[in-house]
Write a sequence for this structure.
Protein backbone atom coordinates (compact mmCIF):
# COMPACT_ATOMS: atom_id res chain seq x y z
CA UNK A 1 0.00 0.00 0.00
CA UNK A 2 2.86 2.40 0.82
CA UNK A 3 4.31 1.73 -2.61
CA UNK A 4 0.99 2.45 -4.28
CA UNK A 5 0.56 5.74 -2.41
CA UNK A 6 4.07 6.76 -3.39
CA UNK A 7 3.37 5.81 -7.00
CA UNK A 8 0.26 8.02 -6.96
CA UNK A 9 2.23 10.92 -5.49
CA UNK A 10 5.01 10.44 -8.02
CA UNK A 11 2.50 10.41 -10.84
CA UNK A 12 0.93 13.68 -9.65
CA UNK A 13 4.05 15.53 -8.53
CA UNK A 14 6.53 13.99 -10.96
CA UNK A 15 8.95 13.23 -8.16
CA UNK A 16 9.83 10.14 -6.16
CA UNK A 17 9.18 11.08 -2.52
CA UNK A 18 10.40 7.84 -0.92
CA UNK A 19 13.30 9.64 0.76
CA UNK A 20 11.11 12.57 1.90
CA UNK A 21 8.41 10.66 3.77
CA UNK A 22 7.98 13.33 6.44
CA UNK A 23 8.64 16.45 4.36
CA UNK A 24 5.71 18.83 4.04
CA UNK A 25 5.11 19.08 0.30
CA UNK A 26 2.81 22.10 0.65
CA UNK A 27 5.60 24.05 2.35
CA UNK A 28 8.13 23.34 -0.36
CA UNK A 29 5.64 24.29 -3.07
CA UNK A 30 5.44 20.87 -4.69
CA UNK A 31 1.75 20.38 -3.82
CA UNK A 32 -1.05 22.91 -4.29
CA UNK A 33 -4.86 22.88 -4.20
CA UNK A 34 -5.26 21.50 -7.69
CA UNK A 35 -2.71 18.73 -7.09
CA UNK A 36 -4.62 17.89 -3.89
CA UNK A 37 -7.74 17.43 -5.99
CA UNK A 38 -5.84 14.94 -8.17
CA UNK A 39 -4.52 13.17 -5.08
CA UNK A 40 -7.96 12.75 -3.50
CA UNK A 41 -9.44 11.43 -6.76
CA UNK A 42 -6.55 9.01 -7.32
CA UNK A 43 -6.69 7.64 -3.75
CA UNK A 44 -10.46 7.10 -3.95
CA UNK A 45 -10.05 5.38 -7.27
CA UNK A 46 -7.18 3.14 -6.24
CA UNK A 47 -8.29 2.10 -2.75
CA UNK A 48 -12.07 2.38 -3.04
CA UNK A 49 -12.13 4.70 -0.03
CA UNK A 50 -14.12 7.86 0.54
CA UNK A 51 -11.99 10.81 1.54
CA UNK A 52 -14.31 13.05 3.61
CA UNK A 53 -13.40 16.28 1.81
CA UNK A 54 -15.98 18.37 3.65
CA UNK A 55 -13.89 17.66 6.77
CA UNK A 56 -10.58 17.97 4.92
CA UNK A 57 -7.79 19.30 7.12
CA UNK A 58 -4.69 20.02 5.09
CA UNK A 59 -2.36 19.55 8.07
CA UNK A 60 -3.39 15.88 8.22
CA UNK A 61 -2.40 15.25 4.61
CA UNK A 62 0.78 17.22 4.13
CA UNK A 63 3.45 14.47 4.03
CA UNK A 64 3.64 11.05 2.31
CA UNK A 65 3.59 9.27 5.70
CA UNK A 66 0.45 11.12 6.79
CA UNK A 67 -1.31 10.20 3.54
CA UNK A 68 -0.42 6.53 4.13
CA UNK A 69 -1.82 6.78 7.69
CA UNK A 70 -5.06 8.39 6.47
CA UNK A 71 -5.54 5.76 3.77
CA UNK A 72 -5.09 3.01 6.39
CA UNK A 73 -7.65 4.64 8.67
CA UNK A 74 -10.17 5.11 5.89
CA UNK A 75 -9.70 1.56 4.59
CA UNK A 76 -10.37 0.18 8.10
CA UNK A 77 -13.65 2.04 8.42
CA UNK B 1 -42.27 52.91 -38.26
CA UNK B 2 -42.11 49.13 -38.09
CA UNK B 3 -38.31 49.13 -38.40
CA UNK B 4 -38.02 51.69 -35.63
CA UNK B 5 -40.24 49.60 -33.41
CA UNK B 6 -38.09 46.51 -33.92
CA UNK B 7 -34.95 48.44 -33.09
CA UNK B 8 -36.48 49.80 -29.92
CA UNK B 9 -37.62 46.36 -28.98
CA UNK B 10 -34.09 45.04 -29.38
CA UNK B 11 -32.89 47.65 -26.90
CA UNK B 12 -35.16 46.38 -24.15
CA UNK B 13 -32.58 44.01 -22.74
CA UNK B 14 -29.59 46.09 -23.68
CA UNK B 15 -28.02 48.88 -21.71
CA UNK B 16 -26.36 52.03 -22.98
CA UNK B 17 -24.21 52.88 -19.98
CA UNK B 18 -22.80 50.58 -17.32
CA UNK B 19 -22.17 53.20 -14.61
CA UNK B 20 -25.58 54.86 -14.77
CA UNK B 21 -27.31 51.47 -14.92
CA UNK B 22 -25.60 50.38 -11.67
CA UNK B 23 -26.47 53.74 -10.06
CA UNK B 24 -30.05 53.31 -11.21
CA UNK B 25 -30.18 49.91 -9.50
CA UNK B 26 -28.90 51.58 -6.32
CA UNK B 27 -31.59 54.25 -6.46
CA UNK B 28 -34.39 51.76 -7.21
CA UNK B 29 -33.41 49.22 -4.56
CA UNK B 30 -30.81 50.71 -2.19
CA UNK B 31 -31.14 47.97 0.42
CA UNK B 32 -30.53 45.08 -1.97
CA UNK B 33 -27.31 43.26 -1.06
CA UNK B 34 -24.62 43.62 -3.71
CA UNK B 35 -21.66 41.92 -2.01
CA UNK B 36 -21.46 39.13 0.51
CA UNK B 37 -18.02 38.16 1.77
CA UNK B 38 -18.59 35.35 4.30
CA UNK B 39 -21.47 37.20 5.91
CA UNK B 40 -19.91 40.67 5.72
CA UNK B 41 -22.47 42.31 3.49
CA UNK B 42 -22.77 45.58 1.60
CA UNK B 43 -25.80 46.89 -0.22
CA UNK B 44 -26.31 48.96 -3.36
CA UNK B 45 -26.62 52.16 -1.31
CA UNK B 46 -23.09 51.51 0.05
CA UNK B 47 -21.82 50.90 -3.45
CA UNK B 48 -23.19 54.22 -4.71
CA UNK B 49 -22.14 56.19 -1.65
CA UNK B 50 -18.60 54.76 -1.62
CA UNK B 51 -18.01 55.15 -5.35
CA UNK B 52 -19.54 58.66 -5.48
CA UNK B 53 -17.53 59.88 -2.51
CA UNK B 54 -14.28 58.44 -3.83
CA UNK B 55 -14.96 59.85 -7.33
CA UNK B 56 -15.42 63.31 -5.77
CA UNK B 57 -12.19 62.88 -3.84
CA UNK B 58 -10.30 61.86 -7.01
CA UNK B 59 -11.70 64.89 -8.88
CA UNK B 60 -10.30 67.34 -6.35
CA UNK B 61 -6.81 65.74 -6.50
CA UNK B 62 -6.29 67.44 -9.84
CA UNK B 63 -4.58 64.48 -11.49
CA UNK B 64 -4.40 64.45 -15.30
CA UNK B 65 -7.59 63.50 -17.15
CA UNK B 66 -7.55 59.88 -18.25
CA UNK B 67 -4.47 58.95 -16.22
CA UNK B 68 -4.73 55.44 -14.78
CA UNK B 69 -5.35 54.56 -11.12
CA UNK B 70 -3.82 51.40 -9.71
CA UNK B 71 -6.05 49.51 -7.25
CA UNK B 72 -4.33 46.92 -5.09
CA UNK B 73 -6.06 44.29 -2.96
CA UNK B 74 -7.78 40.90 -2.77
CA UNK B 75 -11.45 39.91 -2.89
CA UNK B 76 -12.82 42.92 -0.95
CA UNK B 77 -15.95 44.98 -1.59
CA UNK B 78 -13.76 48.10 -1.49
CA UNK B 79 -12.08 46.91 -4.71
CA UNK B 80 -15.32 47.08 -6.72
CA UNK B 81 -16.37 50.39 -5.15
CA UNK B 82 -12.96 51.81 -6.12
CA UNK B 83 -13.19 50.48 -9.71
CA UNK B 84 -16.51 52.26 -10.15
CA UNK B 85 -15.17 55.45 -8.53
CA UNK B 86 -12.23 55.53 -10.96
CA UNK B 87 -14.54 55.07 -13.94
CA UNK B 88 -17.00 57.70 -12.67
CA UNK B 89 -14.21 60.26 -12.33
CA UNK B 90 -12.88 59.54 -15.81
CA UNK B 91 -9.87 57.35 -15.04
CA UNK B 92 -9.02 53.81 -16.15
CA UNK B 93 -8.26 51.47 -13.27
CA UNK B 94 -5.58 48.79 -13.03
CA UNK B 95 -6.54 45.91 -10.69
CA UNK B 96 -3.46 44.39 -9.05
CA UNK B 97 -3.88 41.28 -6.93
CA UNK B 98 -2.55 40.92 -3.42
CA UNK B 99 -0.56 37.82 -4.44
CA UNK B 100 1.58 39.78 -6.91
CA UNK B 101 5.36 39.70 -6.58
CA UNK B 102 7.20 42.93 -5.78
CA UNK B 103 8.83 42.91 -9.19
CA UNK B 104 5.46 42.58 -10.92
CA UNK B 105 4.04 45.52 -8.95
CA UNK B 106 7.10 47.62 -9.69
CA UNK B 107 7.02 46.92 -13.40
CA UNK B 108 3.30 47.73 -13.59
CA UNK B 109 4.00 51.07 -11.89
CA UNK B 110 6.88 51.72 -14.27
CA UNK B 111 4.88 50.88 -17.40
CA UNK B 112 1.55 52.48 -16.45
CA UNK B 113 2.81 55.41 -14.37
CA UNK B 114 -0.45 55.55 -12.36
CA UNK B 115 -1.46 59.01 -11.14
CA UNK B 116 -2.87 57.52 -7.94
CA UNK B 117 -2.58 54.24 -6.06
CA UNK B 118 -5.41 52.92 -3.91
CA UNK B 119 -4.04 50.26 -1.57
CA UNK B 120 -6.85 48.27 0.03
CA UNK B 121 -4.22 45.88 1.32
CA UNK B 122 -0.75 46.92 2.40
CA UNK B 123 1.58 47.32 -0.58
CA UNK B 124 4.83 45.34 -0.34
CA UNK B 125 6.74 48.11 -2.15
CA UNK B 126 7.55 51.69 -1.08
CA UNK B 127 5.76 54.46 -2.96
CA UNK B 128 7.27 57.93 -2.77
CA UNK B 129 6.65 59.80 -6.01
CA UNK B 130 2.86 59.63 -6.36
CA UNK B 131 -0.24 59.93 -4.17
CA UNK B 132 -1.40 56.81 -2.39
CA UNK B 133 -4.66 56.23 -0.50
CA UNK B 134 -4.55 53.42 2.04
CA UNK B 135 -7.51 51.56 3.54
CA UNK B 136 -7.97 53.71 6.64
CA UNK B 137 -8.09 56.94 4.67
CA UNK B 138 -10.22 55.26 2.01
CA UNK B 139 -12.81 54.31 4.63
CA UNK B 140 -13.01 57.95 5.71
CA UNK B 141 -13.37 59.11 2.12
CA UNK B 142 -16.10 56.51 1.44
CA UNK B 143 -18.40 57.98 4.08
CA UNK B 144 -18.07 61.62 3.02
CA UNK B 145 -21.30 60.87 1.16
CA UNK B 146 -20.97 63.47 -1.53
CA UNK B 147 -23.81 63.85 -3.97
CA UNK B 148 -21.72 63.17 -7.02
CA UNK B 149 -22.88 64.16 -10.48
CA UNK B 150 -21.40 62.04 -13.25
CA UNK B 151 -20.06 64.56 -15.76
CA UNK B 152 -16.77 63.22 -17.11
CA UNK B 153 -16.94 59.45 -16.65
CA UNK B 154 -15.03 57.13 -18.97
CA UNK B 155 -17.10 56.56 -22.12
CA UNK B 156 -16.80 55.50 -25.76
CA UNK B 157 -13.20 54.84 -26.71
CA UNK B 158 -11.83 55.86 -23.28
CA UNK B 159 -10.06 53.07 -21.46
CA UNK B 160 -12.23 51.57 -18.71
CA UNK B 161 -9.70 49.13 -17.27
CA UNK B 162 -6.16 47.91 -17.88
CA UNK B 163 -5.32 44.30 -17.04
CA UNK B 164 -1.72 43.14 -17.11
CA UNK B 165 -0.87 39.77 -18.63
CA UNK B 166 2.29 37.73 -18.97
CA UNK B 167 4.76 39.06 -21.58
CA UNK B 168 7.40 37.01 -23.37
CA UNK B 169 10.30 39.32 -22.51
CA UNK B 170 9.60 39.30 -18.79
CA UNK B 171 7.79 42.66 -18.80
CA UNK B 172 4.01 42.30 -18.39
CA UNK B 173 1.70 43.83 -21.02
CA UNK B 174 -1.18 46.14 -20.03
CA UNK B 175 -4.27 45.32 -22.09
CA UNK B 176 -6.47 48.43 -22.43
CA UNK B 177 -10.20 47.73 -22.55
CA UNK B 178 -12.41 50.64 -23.54
CA UNK B 179 -15.85 51.57 -22.26
CA UNK B 180 -17.27 50.52 -25.66
CA UNK B 181 -15.45 47.15 -25.52
CA UNK B 182 -16.88 46.48 -22.07
CA UNK B 183 -20.40 47.64 -22.96
CA UNK B 184 -20.49 45.29 -25.94
CA UNK B 185 -19.32 42.40 -23.74
CA UNK B 186 -21.83 43.10 -20.96
CA UNK B 187 -24.76 43.41 -23.38
CA UNK B 188 -23.81 40.03 -24.82
CA UNK B 189 -23.65 38.36 -21.38
CA UNK B 190 -26.97 39.84 -20.19
CA UNK B 191 -28.62 39.19 -23.57
CA UNK B 192 -30.72 36.33 -24.81
CA UNK B 193 -27.77 34.06 -25.74
CA UNK B 194 -27.18 33.35 -22.05
CA UNK B 195 -30.56 34.37 -20.63
CA UNK B 196 -29.26 34.78 -17.07
CA UNK B 197 -31.65 35.17 -14.12
CA UNK B 198 -33.08 38.66 -13.47
CA UNK B 199 -31.12 39.58 -10.33
CA UNK B 200 -28.54 36.81 -10.35
CA UNK B 201 -26.73 35.56 -7.29
CA UNK B 202 -23.26 34.97 -8.67
CA UNK B 203 -20.13 33.41 -7.26
CA UNK B 204 -17.17 35.82 -7.40
CA UNK B 205 -14.06 33.65 -7.34
CA UNK B 206 -11.39 34.64 -9.90
CA UNK B 207 -9.13 37.45 -8.60
CA UNK B 208 -9.91 40.92 -10.00
CA UNK B 209 -6.54 41.04 -11.79
CA UNK B 210 -7.72 38.08 -13.89
CA UNK B 211 -10.24 39.32 -16.46
CA UNK B 212 -12.52 36.33 -15.95
CA UNK B 213 -13.71 38.29 -12.87
CA UNK B 214 -15.22 40.87 -15.27
CA UNK B 215 -17.62 38.14 -16.41
CA UNK B 216 -19.00 37.77 -12.88
CA UNK B 217 -19.03 41.21 -11.31
CA UNK B 218 -19.99 43.60 -14.10
CA UNK B 219 -23.05 41.75 -15.51
CA UNK B 220 -24.24 40.90 -11.98
CA UNK B 221 -24.14 44.54 -10.87
CA UNK B 222 -25.77 45.74 -14.07
CA UNK B 223 -28.61 43.25 -13.42
CA UNK B 224 -28.94 44.35 -9.78
CA UNK B 225 -27.80 40.98 -8.48
CA UNK B 226 -25.51 39.84 -5.69
CA UNK B 227 -21.91 38.63 -5.60
CA UNK B 228 -20.77 35.89 -3.21
CA UNK B 229 -17.05 36.30 -2.65
CA UNK B 230 -14.61 33.38 -2.58
CA UNK B 231 -11.12 34.53 -1.61
CA UNK B 232 -8.03 32.51 -2.39
CA UNK B 233 -7.70 31.52 1.28
CA UNK B 234 -11.24 30.18 1.22
CA UNK B 235 -10.64 28.26 -2.03
CA UNK B 236 -7.51 26.68 -0.51
CA UNK B 237 -9.31 25.59 2.67
CA UNK B 238 -11.47 22.72 1.40
CA UNK B 239 -13.36 22.20 4.65
CA UNK B 240 -14.44 25.81 4.85
CA UNK B 241 -15.08 26.09 1.13
CA UNK B 242 -17.42 23.09 1.11
CA UNK B 243 -19.29 24.46 4.11
CA UNK B 244 -19.61 27.89 2.51
CA UNK B 245 -20.74 26.92 -1.00
CA UNK B 246 -24.18 25.53 0.03
CA UNK B 247 -24.67 28.54 2.33
CA UNK B 248 -23.90 30.88 -0.56
CA UNK B 249 -26.03 28.70 -2.86
CA UNK B 250 -25.35 30.86 -5.95
CA UNK B 251 -27.36 30.67 -9.16
CA UNK B 252 -24.52 31.52 -11.47
CA UNK B 253 -21.03 30.04 -11.40
CA UNK B 254 -18.42 31.94 -13.38
CA UNK B 255 -15.16 30.08 -13.09
CA UNK B 256 -12.31 28.21 -14.65
CA UNK B 257 -12.93 24.50 -15.24
CA UNK B 258 -10.16 23.91 -12.64
CA UNK B 259 -12.20 25.55 -9.89
CA UNK B 260 -15.21 23.36 -10.71
CA UNK B 261 -12.93 20.28 -10.76
CA UNK B 262 -12.01 21.26 -7.22
CA UNK B 263 -15.67 21.68 -6.20
CA UNK B 264 -16.57 18.32 -7.76
CA UNK B 265 -14.39 16.34 -5.34
CA UNK B 266 -17.09 17.05 -2.76
CA UNK B 267 -19.91 14.55 -3.41
CA UNK B 268 -22.31 17.11 -1.88
CA UNK B 269 -21.56 19.52 -4.72
CA UNK B 270 -24.82 18.60 -6.46
CA UNK B 271 -28.28 19.79 -7.37
CA UNK B 272 -29.72 18.76 -4.01
CA UNK B 273 -27.31 20.69 -1.80
CA UNK B 274 -26.78 23.56 -4.22
CA UNK B 275 -30.41 23.92 -5.18
CA UNK B 276 -30.08 27.33 -6.85
CA UNK B 277 -27.15 26.56 -9.14
CA UNK B 278 -28.49 26.74 -12.68
CA UNK B 279 -25.80 28.43 -14.77
CA UNK B 280 -22.15 27.52 -15.22
CA UNK B 281 -20.08 29.86 -17.37
CA UNK B 282 -16.58 28.64 -18.18
CA UNK B 283 -13.63 30.50 -19.58
CA UNK B 284 -9.89 30.82 -19.08
CA UNK B 285 -8.79 27.33 -20.09
CA UNK B 286 -10.02 24.27 -21.92
CA UNK B 287 -13.23 22.68 -20.61
CA UNK B 288 -12.74 18.92 -20.93
CA UNK B 289 -15.42 16.39 -21.72
CA UNK B 290 -14.64 14.70 -18.41
CA UNK B 291 -15.39 17.82 -16.34
CA UNK B 292 -18.51 18.66 -18.37
CA UNK B 293 -19.91 15.12 -18.03
CA UNK B 294 -19.36 15.04 -14.28
CA UNK B 295 -21.03 18.41 -13.92
CA UNK B 296 -24.08 17.46 -15.99
CA UNK B 297 -24.39 14.33 -13.89
CA UNK B 298 -24.46 16.40 -10.67
CA UNK B 299 -26.58 19.24 -12.06
CA UNK B 300 -28.84 17.72 -14.74
CA UNK B 301 -31.05 20.82 -15.00
CA UNK B 302 -28.28 23.44 -15.16
CA UNK B 303 -27.16 25.24 -18.28
CA UNK B 304 -23.44 24.93 -19.00
CA UNK B 305 -21.74 27.40 -21.30
CA UNK B 306 -18.25 27.14 -22.68
CA UNK B 307 -16.83 30.51 -23.68
CA UNK B 308 -13.58 31.62 -25.28
CA UNK B 309 -11.51 34.74 -25.67
CA UNK B 310 -8.16 36.25 -24.75
CA UNK B 311 -7.84 39.28 -22.45
CA UNK B 312 -7.09 41.38 -25.57
CA UNK B 313 -10.63 40.86 -26.86
CA UNK B 314 -12.50 41.68 -23.65
CA UNK B 315 -12.88 38.51 -21.58
CA UNK B 316 -14.71 36.30 -24.10
CA UNK B 317 -16.10 36.55 -27.62
CA UNK B 318 -17.75 33.20 -28.29
CA UNK B 319 -20.09 30.87 -26.47
CA UNK B 320 -21.87 27.56 -26.86
CA UNK B 321 -24.16 25.64 -24.56
CA UNK B 322 -22.61 22.29 -23.68
CA UNK B 323 -25.21 19.53 -23.74
CA UNK B 324 -24.87 15.77 -23.41
CA UNK B 325 -25.36 15.51 -27.16
CA UNK B 326 -22.48 17.87 -27.90
CA UNK B 327 -20.22 16.01 -25.49
CA UNK B 328 -21.03 12.68 -27.12
CA UNK B 329 -20.24 13.79 -30.63
CA UNK B 330 -17.07 15.83 -29.89
CA UNK B 331 -13.49 14.70 -29.37
CA UNK B 332 -12.74 18.06 -27.84
CA UNK B 333 -15.50 20.44 -26.77
CA UNK B 334 -16.20 23.39 -29.09
CA UNK B 335 -15.43 26.90 -27.84
CA UNK B 336 -18.41 28.67 -29.28
CA UNK B 337 -20.09 30.87 -31.87
CA UNK B 338 -18.69 34.41 -32.06
CA UNK B 339 -20.86 37.24 -30.71
CA UNK B 340 -22.74 39.28 -33.31
CA UNK B 341 -20.52 42.35 -33.44
CA UNK B 342 -17.25 40.42 -33.47
CA UNK B 343 -15.81 38.20 -36.19
CA UNK B 344 -13.42 35.27 -36.22
CA UNK B 345 -11.13 34.39 -39.13
CA UNK B 346 -8.61 31.56 -39.41
CA UNK B 347 -5.25 32.57 -40.88
CA UNK B 348 -2.51 30.40 -42.39
CA UNK B 349 1.23 30.88 -42.05
CA UNK B 350 1.30 33.50 -44.82
CA UNK B 351 -1.47 35.50 -43.13
CA UNK B 352 -3.88 34.21 -45.76
CA UNK B 353 -7.51 33.44 -44.91
CA UNK B 354 -8.05 29.69 -44.61
CA UNK B 355 -11.25 27.98 -45.74
CA UNK B 356 -13.75 26.37 -43.40
CA UNK B 357 -12.50 23.27 -41.65
CA UNK B 358 -8.77 24.06 -41.91
CA UNK B 359 -6.62 24.69 -38.86
CA UNK B 360 -4.76 27.97 -38.45
CA UNK B 361 -4.35 30.96 -36.17
CA UNK B 362 -7.53 32.40 -34.67
CA UNK B 363 -7.87 36.08 -35.59
CA UNK B 364 -10.55 38.13 -33.85
CA UNK B 365 -11.88 41.41 -35.27
CA UNK B 366 -14.60 43.93 -34.44
CA UNK B 367 -16.18 45.54 -31.41
CA UNK B 368 -14.50 43.40 -28.73
CA UNK B 369 -10.91 44.05 -29.75
CA UNK B 370 -8.73 46.16 -27.43
CA UNK B 371 -6.96 49.28 -28.71
CA UNK B 372 -3.65 47.63 -27.69
CA UNK B 373 -1.07 47.46 -24.92
CA UNK B 374 -0.52 50.49 -22.72
CA UNK B 375 2.67 52.38 -23.63
CA UNK B 376 3.91 49.51 -25.75
CA UNK B 377 3.62 50.40 -29.47
CA UNK B 378 6.01 47.62 -30.49
CA UNK B 379 3.99 44.74 -28.99
CA UNK B 380 0.74 46.43 -30.01
CA UNK B 381 1.85 46.59 -33.63
CA UNK B 382 2.98 42.99 -33.59
CA UNK B 383 -0.38 41.64 -32.42
CA UNK B 384 -3.01 44.16 -33.58
CA UNK B 385 -3.85 45.14 -37.16
CA UNK B 386 -6.69 46.17 -39.41
CA UNK B 387 -8.86 43.54 -41.08
CA UNK B 388 -11.95 44.19 -43.18
CA UNK B 389 -11.79 47.78 -41.99
CA UNK B 390 -12.02 46.71 -38.35
CA UNK B 391 -9.60 46.44 -35.48
CA UNK B 392 -8.18 42.91 -35.29
CA UNK B 393 -6.03 40.78 -32.96
CA UNK B 394 -3.84 37.75 -33.65
CA UNK B 395 -4.52 35.41 -30.74
CA UNK B 396 -1.67 32.91 -31.18
CA UNK B 397 -4.33 30.24 -30.57
CA UNK B 398 -4.87 27.60 -33.21
CA UNK B 399 -8.39 26.70 -34.24
CA UNK B 400 -10.88 25.80 -36.94
CA UNK B 401 -14.30 27.09 -37.89
CA UNK B 402 -16.76 24.39 -38.91
CA UNK B 403 -19.62 24.58 -41.42
CA UNK B 404 -21.97 25.92 -38.77
CA UNK B 405 -19.57 28.73 -37.83
CA UNK B 406 -18.68 27.01 -34.57
CA UNK B 407 -15.12 27.54 -33.35
CA UNK B 408 -12.89 24.66 -32.20
CA UNK B 409 -9.63 25.03 -30.29
CA UNK B 410 -6.50 23.13 -31.37
CA UNK B 411 -3.67 24.39 -29.14
CA UNK B 412 -1.08 27.19 -29.28
CA UNK B 413 1.26 28.54 -31.94
CA UNK B 414 3.87 29.59 -29.41
CA UNK B 415 5.03 28.87 -25.86
CA UNK B 416 2.06 30.28 -24.02
CA UNK B 417 0.29 27.89 -21.65
CA UNK B 418 -2.76 27.95 -19.39
CA UNK B 419 -2.22 26.54 -15.94
CA UNK B 420 -5.47 26.27 -13.97
CA UNK B 421 -6.77 29.19 -16.01
CA UNK B 422 -3.73 31.43 -15.57
CA UNK B 423 -2.06 32.56 -18.76
CA UNK B 424 1.70 32.06 -18.65
CA UNK B 425 4.35 32.78 -21.27
CA UNK B 426 7.05 30.15 -20.77
CA UNK B 427 9.64 32.70 -21.94
CA UNK B 428 8.67 34.94 -19.03
CA UNK B 429 9.24 32.05 -16.62
CA UNK B 430 12.63 31.38 -18.25
CA UNK B 431 13.57 35.05 -17.83
CA UNK B 432 12.67 34.97 -14.17
CA UNK B 433 14.53 31.70 -13.55
CA UNK B 434 17.73 33.21 -14.93
CA UNK B 435 17.52 36.04 -12.40
CA UNK B 436 18.28 33.66 -9.55
CA UNK B 437 21.89 33.57 -8.42
CA UNK B 438 21.72 29.77 -8.28
CA UNK B 439 20.84 29.30 -11.95
CA UNK B 440 23.23 29.00 -14.86
CA UNK B 441 20.74 27.81 -17.47
CA UNK B 442 17.06 27.01 -17.20
CA UNK B 443 13.95 26.23 -19.15
CA UNK B 444 10.33 25.90 -18.03
CA UNK B 445 8.63 22.72 -19.21
CA UNK B 446 4.88 22.01 -18.97
CA UNK B 447 3.61 18.55 -18.13
CA UNK B 448 0.30 17.62 -19.76
CA UNK B 449 -2.46 15.28 -18.59
CA UNK B 450 -4.51 12.91 -20.76
CA UNK B 451 -6.87 15.74 -21.79
CA UNK B 452 -4.03 17.91 -23.20
CA UNK B 453 -4.27 20.25 -20.22
CA UNK B 454 -1.18 21.43 -18.42
CA UNK B 455 -1.15 19.74 -15.02
CA UNK B 456 2.21 20.93 -13.73
CA UNK B 457 4.98 23.36 -14.57
CA UNK B 458 8.53 22.04 -14.19
CA UNK B 459 11.87 23.76 -14.45
CA UNK B 460 14.92 22.11 -15.90
CA UNK B 461 17.87 23.84 -14.32
CA UNK B 462 21.61 23.72 -14.74
CA UNK B 463 22.64 25.08 -11.33
CA UNK B 464 25.66 27.23 -10.58
CA UNK B 465 28.17 25.80 -8.13
CA UNK B 466 26.67 25.89 -4.66
CA UNK B 467 27.16 24.62 -1.12
CA UNK B 468 23.80 23.02 -0.58
CA UNK B 469 24.06 19.52 0.91
CA UNK B 470 20.75 18.38 -0.59
CA UNK B 471 18.85 19.21 -3.76
CA UNK B 472 15.75 20.03 -1.73
CA UNK B 473 17.68 22.80 0.05
CA UNK B 474 18.73 24.27 -3.28
CA UNK B 475 15.12 24.10 -4.48
CA UNK B 476 13.89 25.88 -1.35
CA UNK B 477 16.47 28.67 -1.77
CA UNK B 478 15.65 28.99 -5.44
CA UNK B 479 11.93 29.26 -4.78
CA UNK B 480 12.58 31.99 -2.22
CA UNK B 481 14.52 33.92 -4.88
CA UNK B 482 11.73 33.47 -7.42
CA UNK B 483 9.02 34.77 -5.08
CA UNK B 484 10.58 38.21 -5.44
CA UNK B 485 10.44 38.25 -9.21
CA UNK B 486 7.40 36.31 -10.32
CA UNK B 487 3.72 35.69 -9.66
CA UNK B 488 3.20 32.67 -7.37
CA UNK B 489 1.19 30.78 -9.99
CA UNK B 490 4.12 31.07 -12.43
CA UNK B 491 6.69 29.49 -10.12
CA UNK B 492 7.43 25.93 -11.29
CA UNK B 493 6.34 23.42 -8.66
CA UNK B 494 9.15 21.02 -9.45
CA UNK B 495 12.84 21.54 -10.21
CA UNK B 496 14.89 18.99 -12.09
CA UNK B 497 18.64 19.53 -11.99
CA UNK B 498 20.64 18.76 -15.10
CA UNK B 499 24.25 18.82 -16.25
CA UNK B 500 23.17 20.46 -19.51
CA UNK B 501 20.02 21.31 -21.46
CA UNK B 502 19.07 19.95 -24.90
CA UNK B 503 20.15 22.31 -27.70
CA UNK B 504 18.40 22.56 -31.06
CA UNK B 505 20.04 22.96 -34.49
CA UNK B 506 19.91 26.75 -34.30
CA UNK B 507 21.81 26.78 -31.02
CA UNK B 508 18.86 27.58 -28.75
CA UNK B 509 17.52 25.54 -25.87
CA UNK B 510 15.32 22.86 -27.42
CA UNK B 511 12.05 23.34 -25.54
CA UNK B 512 10.16 20.86 -27.70
CA UNK B 513 12.63 18.12 -26.87
CA UNK B 514 12.32 18.87 -23.17
CA UNK B 515 8.51 18.85 -23.41
CA UNK B 516 8.60 15.53 -25.26
CA UNK B 517 10.89 13.99 -22.65
CA UNK B 518 8.81 15.17 -19.68
CA UNK B 519 5.60 13.92 -21.25
CA UNK B 520 6.73 10.61 -22.75
CA UNK B 521 9.72 9.69 -20.66
Amino acid sequence: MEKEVLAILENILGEDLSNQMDDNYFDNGLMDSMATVDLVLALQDKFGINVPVSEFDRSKWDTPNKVIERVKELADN
Amino acid sequence: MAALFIMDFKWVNMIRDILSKIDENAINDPNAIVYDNLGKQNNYADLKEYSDSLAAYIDQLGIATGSPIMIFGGQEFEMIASFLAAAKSGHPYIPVDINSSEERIESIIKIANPALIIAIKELPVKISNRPIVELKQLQDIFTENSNYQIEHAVSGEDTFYIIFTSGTTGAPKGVQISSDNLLSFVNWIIGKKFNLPKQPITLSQPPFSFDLSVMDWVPTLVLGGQLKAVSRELADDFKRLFQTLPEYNPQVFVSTPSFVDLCLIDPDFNEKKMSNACYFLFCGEELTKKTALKLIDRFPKAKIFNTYGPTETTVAISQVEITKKIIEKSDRLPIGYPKEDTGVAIFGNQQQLLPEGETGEIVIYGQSVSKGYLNNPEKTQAAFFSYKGQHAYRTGDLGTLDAKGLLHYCGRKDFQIKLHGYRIELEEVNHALLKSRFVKQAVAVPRYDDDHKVSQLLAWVVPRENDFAKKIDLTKALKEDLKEVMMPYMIPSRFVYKESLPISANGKIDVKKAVAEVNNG
In short: The domain at 416-520 of chain B is CATH 3.30.300.30 (GMP Synthetase; Chain A, domain 3). Chain B has four domains: 42-179, 190-334, 341-414, 416-520. The longest strand of chain B covers residues 390-401.
